[in-house]
Amino acid sequence: MGQRGSPPYPTALRALNGETRPTRINKREPKPAAGTPTCPRTASKDVKAIWDYTLDQLATMGLATPADRDALLCYCEAVVRHRKASALIAQHGVVVMGLNGAWTTYQGVTVQRDAANEIKAFAREFGMTPSSRVGLTVPDAADGSKAARLLG
Question: What's this model's pTM, rounded to 2 decimal places?
Answer without folding.
Answer: 0.75
